[in-house]
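Why do we bother with a discrete structure alphabet at all? Because it lets us treat a fold like text: something you can write down, compare, and reason about line by line. To make this less abstract, here is a complete entry for Response regulator receiver domain-containing protein. Read it the way you would read a sentence in a foreign language you are learning: slowly, and without expecting to understand everything at once.
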Amino acid sequence: MDKKKIMICDDDEGIIDVLEMILDEVGHTVISVNDSLKVQAAIDKEQPDLLILDLWMPRLSGQEVLKHLRKHSAHQQLKVIVISASRDGEQVASDAGANQFIAKPFDLNNILESVNALLN
């Protein structure tokens, strides 16, 4: 598989660390952002192939981040996996324009399968 650029936006440093470790291990370049207000600028700068986005974050929710991204033509094709422990997270993620939803706590193999499926 070609090396891809994956951005992770989550306010939980532990989740970022785990995702960075497994995605880096399989050969991807990983950029992490722990502040949802900074993710738009980071996407504009880094041009990731995939965004892994937490749904519930302080200041600006992942749902709002994703809705804002989908309004801009430059980001309409960006692949997005939303992760959340929310009961209604799958519906919220779908309504906001996510390509896929993964419930927390997640299985690392599920994350890798989803990433591979969206990037191939």
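What the structure line is telling us, in plain words: The domain at 5-119 is CATH 3.40.50.2300 (Rossmann fold). Residues 55 and 89 are 7 Å apart (CA to CA).
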